[in-house]
Write a structure and sequence with these properties.
With 257 residues, the chain is α/β, with parallel strands linked by helices. The chain has twelve helices and ten strands. It has a six-stranded mixed sheet, sandwiched between helices. It has a four-stranded mixed sheet with strand order 4-6-8-9. The radius of gyration is 19 Å and the shape is globular. 34% of the residues are buried.
Amino acid sequence: MTESPLLQSRPQPGCAVLTLHRPQALNALSAALRAELVAALQALDRDDTVRAVVLTGAGKAFCAGLDLRELGTEGVPTLGGTNDPVRALTAFSKPLIAAVNGAAVTGGFELALACDVLLASTTARFADTHARIGVIPGWGLSQKLSRLIGLPRAKEMAFSGNFINADTAERWGIANRVLSPDELLPAALALAADMASAEPGMLRAYKRLIDEGFGLPLGEAMALEAQRSKEWAAAQTPEALERRRAAVQERGRGQVG
């Protein structure tokens, strides 16, 4: 029996972990893995018991990008179709945390950047090798990376194909923080638990507002926020707000930083 290229687990209430599981191929995105990842994300989005998801890789890599062996025999796949994992990640309505445990290269880099938060192991490395492979990005790297780290740094990565390490990724704003390999998944799960403890409807609405507003000029984004804020406030009751206020105060007393 062939082992699945994607593993799913539920290590704690409200959280799911998706593990890219082709370690012998550095978790390269074969057609089968892309299809399974899209299906898993769609199922988890419909599952109300799941409020946050962690995406990571098995073995020594996070993801080496598209499977170059398949590209050599089948050509470049049509991006944006039904088995587009980056589109599925972008459409996912709940918080997504990338726990990057090793190399995240080209399509694998795009996969990590499609998540909401990126935590990196000290062994993580990032590279854009599109120019060296001879494939124009189709999952957003040419546009997202420059907006994230600035045009000169994005061009340096794109034109050279050179790797940057985890510390550089954190300094440039790609990674939220860098952790030891042993600390990576526990930290991702702890953050997922924090996110999962928030109001589920609020998480979806806030994520949607941030993502949609980020793609607009600031003035339009501010108007969008004002509109959504007014709509949300109209649907709240004083009792619900008081309950949440008390819960926030209690939680704050237990946090030290």
